[in-house]
Amino acid sequence: MSGSLMGTALSGLRAAQIGLNTTSNNIANVNTQGYNRQIAGLSEAKGTNAGGLFAGSGVSVTGVQRQYEQYLSTQLNDANSELGASTSHLAQISQIDNLLADGDAGLNKQMQSFFAGMQTLANNPADTSARQAMLGNAESMTAQFRATDSYLKNMSNNTVAQMGGMVDEINSYSKQIATLNVQITQTQAKTGTPPNDMLDQRDLAVAKLSELTAVSVVNQDGQYTVSLSSGQALVAGKQVQSLQMMPSEDDPTHQVVALKASDGNLFELDESKMTGGALGGLVQFRSQSLEPTQLRLDQMAHALTTRLNDLQTGGVDLDNNVGKALFTTSTPGVVPSKGNSSDAIPTVVFAGSTTTTSDQGVEAKGIDEISKVSASNYKLTVTSNGPVLTRLSDNQAVEASAAGLVIGDTSSFSAGDTFIIKPLENAAAQMSVSKDMTPEGVAARGSQSEGVRGNSNALAMANAQSENLINGSTSLNTAYASLVSDVGNKTATLKSSNAAQTQISQELKSAQQSVSGVNIDEEAANMLKYQQLYSASAQMIRASSEMFDALIGIMR
Predict the structure, then answer these.
(1) Which of 92, 107, 213, 376 is most buried, most CB within 10 Å of its CB?
(2) For residues 226 and 242, what is the distance between their CA atoms, to the nearest angstrom?
(3) Which of 150, 182, 460 is nearest to 309 (CA)?
């Protein structure tokens, strides 16, 4: 009987020890990131038949169980992925919003000063000081265009650098998960019990990965398969496929995220499907906010310089000569695909221009259709039936003439060759007042018959700010105001959605912590409970020992 009592007491003592160890471990890890609270699993030990009585035989410790809820953790990871995307997008677009909305030093003020100076010149066409002031305003305006373009280009370079850093982090977490997959399987096979610390480490790696990019996780036989939102697997058991930055196949000047398969081949990822995590936020910022802003800035620079040059070269200057170009202008850029049959490029010019991008000369005489040049790049595909031009802003096939372009002969190129056409490339970056322009060289007169006080051409140049030069329906003033408004509205929308997503993540974190988090008060209560169990079990052991000693004494 005392032996049975001793065994029961010892089982209680063991349960108390394991419970105290578990509680102590919980308290020690209260601030450990990724730690999931543990509890000692206890169950009633199998009873025994003693003299016709079925008596209990103590308590069994079934294991130390991790308090982990897969559903809640998945929801939290998904929410944090969305939060990471909106946070990184918002952080970047806010910089553009601040840049464009600066009324004191921004581009809008410089354009207004330039056109105001042109109006003053029109009012005093023979006044060389008015002419000099207008050119000074033109210098300030073009410098602001270049500075704005430089700022946006630096943002683009920094965005690519940040993307590269995040790709490295993603690869690191993927390797951790694959390594832990192997270690968890091996440890569980040896011990027969799940290694809670390794499980925590793996789930933490998944959580960190989710903050960088949206992923889905499948648990198969204790091993995680982690896939991108676009479907490609990053981790499958012990196998890892890494990400890498690479030049785009279509546009080698454009860095994109690619998946490096186990055989070493690189596959460019579809950016439209990269919507989650901080990396997805940067990708979406670049494609949906930064690049459209750059294109619209270049569109305004192109429209302004081209229209003013058209008017300037159609007028007469103070020395009775035909006017020369007021501004320098850029030419369309053409980038061949990496997979083309040769490095040759087709000639592309603006309609009404004789400027070419290669030595394969093409003339396209006529009125320069400024308003047809939209804020978009294009993809030119050579086919057996001729070239096909696709506008990348909406993936619509268009005629070159509708885009304000003339494309040279493509018959010498191979079917399947593709090119990215960038009509507005460097329009703002190369915008400047012509080096040989002088105050006397400003063509204020519309014709020689007007005399030195003629101002019809200067009036036309001053009025160019209100002409519908953008997309055939929008003036320069309205186009800039629309750009500022669009960026501001998108920033405000992102702020609102980011605040809402932050609230969602916090609520899910609270729900997850209610299951998996360590509560010091609760652990203190558990510690007291196990201390009492330990003390009571020890007393039972003492009582059992005394009973056994008494029995031995009687037998003597």
Answers:
(1) 213
(2) 12
(3) 460
Alpha-carbon gap, residue 34 to 234, rounded angstroms = 21
Tell me the H-state helices in 319-472: 456-463
Alpha carbon 219 to chain centroid distance?
28
Pair (487, 532) in one structural domain: no
Ramachandran angles phi, psi of 455, nearest 5°: -140, 10
Which amino acid type is present at position 398?
A: V
Q: Which of 446, 442, 376 is CA-nearest to residue 405?
A: 376
Residue 96 to residue 325: CA distance in whole angstroms? 31
Task: With respect to residue 487, please indicate whether it lies within any of the assigned structural domains.
Answer: yes
- DSSP class of residue 324 equals P
Residue 139 within a domain:
yes
Would you call 59 helix, strand, or coil by DSSP? strand
Residue with tokens 């007393």: 539
Distance CA 235, CA 88 (A): 25
Helix or strand holding residue 523 (H, E): helix 520-555
Residues of the chain scoring pLDDT < 70: 1-3, 49-55, 105, 353-368, 548-549, 556
Within this chain, do residues 371 and 340 fall inside the same structural domain, yes or no? yes
The number of C-alpha atoms within 13 Å of 143 and in the hemisphere containing its C-beta is: 9
Model pLDDT, residue 4:
74
Burial zone of 289 (CB within 10 Å; 0-12 exposed, 13-18 middle, 19+ buried):
buried
For residue 35, what are the domain limits?
A: 1-67+519-555
Smallest Cα–Cα separation from 204: which of 66, 56, 366?
Answer: 66
Q: What is the pLDDT of residues 204-252, one digit of tens each?
A: 999 999 999 999 999 998 999 999 998 999 999 999 999 999 999 999 9
